[in-house]
Design brief:
The structure is a single chain. The chain is mainly alpha-helical. It has one domain (2-422). The protein has 20 helices and no strands. It has helices at 2-29, 35-55, 59-66, 80-103, 115-118, 123-142, 147-169, 175-186, 188-199, 214-249, 251-265, 269-287, 291-318, 320-326, 335-351, 354-359, 365-417, 424-441, 449-471, 475-492. Helix 3 (59-66) crosses helix 10, helix 4 runs antiparallel to helix 6 and helix 13 (291-318) runs parallel beside helix 18 (424-441). It is globular and about 70 Å long.
């Protein structure tokens, strides 16, 4: 747990530094730009995410589940990196073919002056850098260095896109230049990690195909196929809403939705570093048949992520009107999108590392089945709800689909491994959250929205933290709190 705790803290610091940059980008700069341009960037990124996941050919799952069998002390890792690069190159070629086919089939009737069609081919380079970022990020993760990828994705990428938005807002560049600069900034993590990985002398790109036994090849193909299904389903489900909104409701509404979605997804940010780091350790634990350690990681991930996630949800909810002050004009219509998306992702936090545990187990195929159901649910619900309720309908579709999917994860782990991470402390956290909301209702509205954010957030944060500290809902939280209380005590003395 020491590796998880240390890298989670570093990863969380980097992530929330990126959140600050992202907040300025989304909350301050983006609303100053026509929503159709924001919609354009969102749809291109969504399509690139789907193509890069398909183009990875299940490599992420193979790396997470099977790298332990390649690992060596001399860092050659039996030629794993050569194999990964070869698979990713083939995957990119296949993804590019799919992109071309889509252009001349699904989008064939679009006019050439359609804004989206004008920049359609940007999907290709963005997909390339996404595929290879995912490759090396996953590789470093199983080497227990998840911080590198977190730094590039959560901070460098956000600085890159922030810079592009700042330049167009202050008038340094026009829209055409903005699009190129924006996607150059978005692709920075891929560019940097490729260059640094090639220059890193510890990495070996030598082929050792003889190491691949018949059984290992069979396992890689099986895991790869189901990883493609589960991974692609997850990415499609996460991005299909923007694509469907663009098709059914226009680029402008896709832009509004993407901005509101950003605020809602803040709830899940603390999980990114923890789950990245813990998945490699869970895979090692499965290899050693260490079910006790897996159960401990599951239990702690649930309590810690839900504890933080609920606080962030409360922060968003009590400051919803203040957020709308920032999201002026068309963007203000995303109010309920924020709420439904935030609650949807809170259900992910309540699942903890459940998804990673199932995927790295011998029942990993169930994740593929669940994700297929997930994508069917979200596509069907979007098709029904978007025409009726617009972007709010898309958010409701995500909420319903996520909750049902996470319930399925829970019952699969309970049935096959008797893993049950929930106890009365979850109920205590919910009760404390309700107390905070009741107190918030009696806080007078401040004239200045920034002052109101500070007042409400401070009171809510202090009450919530103190209640959970006194009740000892999380051992890890109390340990960290006690550490800093001790430091402050020494300074005062």
């Amino acid at each position: 747990m020491g590796i998880i705790k240390k890298q989670t803290i570093i990863g969380t610091i980097l992530t929330y530094t990126g959140v600050i940059v992202g907040f300025i980008t989304v909350g301050i700069l983006s609303p100053k730009i026509d929503s159709k341009y924001i919609g354009l960037t969102a749809v291109i990124i969504s399509l690139s995410n789907i193509m890069s996941q398909l183009g990875s050919l299940g490599l992420a799952g193979v790396t997470t589940r099977l790298f332990a069998y390649f690992r060596t002390k001399d860092n050659t890792h039996n030629g794993f990196l050569f194999l990964a690069v070869a698979v990713s190159t083939l995957g990119f070629i296949l993804a590019s073919i799919i992109i071309v086919v889509l252009k001349y089939t699904v989008y064939s009737e679009r006019a050439e002056n359609d804004l989206f069609i004008q920049y359609y081919w940007l999907i290709v380079p963005v997909t390339f850098f996404s595929i290879f970022f995912n490759l090396f990020d996953q590789y470093y993760k199983v080497l227990f260095n998840a911080v590198k990828g977190i730094f590039l994705k959560e901070l460098v990428q956000k600085i890159g896109t922030f810079s592009a938005l700042l330049m167009i807002v202050v008038g340094l560049i026009n829209f055409k230049t903005f699009v190129w600069v924006y996607f150059a900034g978005y692709s920075l993590p891929g560019i940097i990690i490729i260059i640094s990985s090639v220059l890193d002398k510890k990495n070996s790109f030598k082929s050792q195909l003889k190491f691949l036994s018949k059984d290992l090849k069979k396992s890689m193909i099986s895991v790869g196929v189901f990883s493609i299904i589960s991974g692609a389903s997850g990415i499609i489900a996460m991005n299909i809403d923007r694509i469907m909104i663009e098709a059914m409701d226009g680029l402008s509404n896709a832009g509004v939705y993407s901005i509101a979605f950003y605020f809602g997804v803040l709830v899940i940010i603390p999980s990114r570093s923890l789950l990245k780091i813990s998945s490699a350790l869970i895979a090692e634990a499965w290899k050693n048949n260490d079910i006790k350690n897996i159960a401990l990681i599951y239990k702690k991930s649930v309590i810690n992520l839900f504890l933080v996630g609920l606080l962030l949800l409360i922060g968003l909810y009590i400051n919803l009107d203040n957020i709308l002050v920032l999201l002026k004009g068309d963007y203000a219509s995303g109010k309920y999108v924020i709420v439904f998306i935030a609650v949807a992702f809170l259900s992910d936090m309540l699942l903890g590392a459940g998804g990673q545990i199932l995927f790295t187990s011998d029942k990993y195929k169930f994740q593929a089945y669940i994700m297929i159901l997930y994508i069917l649910l979200i596509v069907a619900s979007n098709a029904i709800l978007i025409p009726e309720y617009g972007i709010t309908g898309a958010a409701i579709a995500t909420f319903l689909s996520k909750v049902l999917t996470n319930i399925m994860y829970y019952f699969v782990l309970l049935k096959y491994y008797k893993l049950q991470p929930y106890n009365f402390k979850i109920l205590l956290i919910i009760i404390f959250g309700a107390i905070v909301l009741i107190i918030n209702a009696y806080i007078p509205k401040q004239n200045n929205f920034i002052v109101d954010i500070i007042v409400r957030s401070s009171i809510a944060g202090i009450v919530y933290i103190v209640l959970n500290y006194v009740a000892k809902t999380s051992e890890d939280f109390n340990a960290i709190a006690n550490k800093y209380i001790g430091i402050i005590g020494k300074i005062i003395r």
